[in-house]
């Protein structure tokens, strides 16, 4: 029983690390999609548009990781690999959704997101990011 508990705890730590790495990759993705440095936009300039997009991205990645773990293979290695793979797929799909939305709308979405003035496009972009993540979640389940 103690061995099962320790094994489960170790697997939780490893899955947690993979999840945090994927969320860090999500941060990098949003940083790459928006002009300027995301750290400055959110933590120095207190830009609500950029914060909303990043929050949607982080919640989306967390949802993908959650779904991948929850529906994971019984084999730990396969479950871990599928979690990492689906997390990366989610990042690609979210980036694609951002580019498609940018093509469909006037102006440059990245510049709008970086604007200090609140803009409705930030909410649409955040919903697009989160919606793309939900699509990946459905594919996993």
TrEMBL record:
InterPro entries: DUF350 (IPR007140). It is found in: Cell membrane. Pfam families: DUF350 (PF03994). Keywords: Cell membrane, Membrane, Transmembrane, Transmembrane helix. GO terms for cellular component: plasma membrane. The chain crosses the membrane at residues 12-30, 51-73, 79-101. The keyword Transmembrane helix applies. It is a multi-pass membrane protein. Belongs to the UPF0719 family. This is Uncharacterized membrane protein YjfL, UPF0719 family. It comes from Micromonospora pallida.
């Amino acid at each position: 029983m103690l061995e099962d508990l320790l094994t489960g705890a170790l697997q939780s730590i490893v899955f947690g690390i993979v999840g945090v790495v994927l969320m860090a990759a999500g941060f990098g993705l949003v940083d790459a999609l928006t002009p300027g440095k995301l750290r400055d936009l959110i933590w120095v300039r207190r830009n609500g548009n950029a914060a909303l997009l990043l929050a949607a991205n982080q919640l989306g990645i967390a949802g993908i990781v959650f779904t991948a773990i929850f529906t994971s293979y019984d084999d730990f290695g396969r479950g871990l690999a599928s979690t990492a793979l689906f997390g990366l797929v989610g990042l690609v799909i979210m980036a694609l959704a951002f580019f498609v939305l940018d093509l469909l709308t006037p102006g440059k979405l990245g510049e709008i997101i970086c604007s200090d003035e609140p803009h409705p496009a930030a909410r649409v972009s955040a919903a697009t990011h989160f919606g793309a993540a939900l699509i990946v979640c459905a594919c996993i389940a």
